[in-house]
Write a structure and sequence with these properties.
The chain has 122 residues and is mainly β. The protein is built from no helices and 11 strands. Strands 2, 4, 5, 6, 9, 10 and 11 form a 7-stranded mixed sheet that branches. The chain has a 4-stranded antiparallel sheet with strand order 1-3-8-7, with no helix packed on it.
Length: 122
């Protein structure tokens, strides 16, 4: 059974940093394409970043060098380092896993965690 469990969400001030983690079980992070999505209040789920099986990252345009996606295949954990956080980054953040392509389209990922809340305030 595949399980993805996010952690690391918190309340921070504008300009602050957070590192989100996603612990995977039932799949190997080396064999799956992994991604971070977020859902802001009143909005649909949007892609933030992906990382391929070989560790190649891709980012949504709004990230603009502020976020870094990485993974530790030995620990089977996916990370999202978020720096220079903005109020508009407030959202529930989800990790997802799939084996089709490194895309920011939510429907291409069959495995999802339950999310971790990030709140950015001034």
């Amino acid at each position: 059974q595949v399980q993805l469990v996010e952690s690391g969400g918190d309340s921070v001030q504008v300009g602050g940093s957070l590192r989100l983690s996603c612990a995977a079980s039932g799949i190997s992070t080396s064999d799956y394409i992994l991604a971070w999505f977020r859902q802001r209040p009143g909005n649909g789920r949007e892609g933030v970043a992906t990382i391929s099986k070989r560790g190649i990252p891709t980012y949504a345009a709004f990230v603009k060098g502020r976020f870094t996606v990485s993974k530790d295949n030995g620990k089977n954990i996916l990370y999202l380092q978020m720096n220079n956080l903005k109020i508009e980054d407030t959202a529930m953040y989800y990790c997802a896993g799939g084996d089709s392509s490194a895309t920011l389209t939510p429907s291409r990922y069959p495995h999802w965690g339950r999310g971790t809340q990030v709140t950015v305030s001034s």
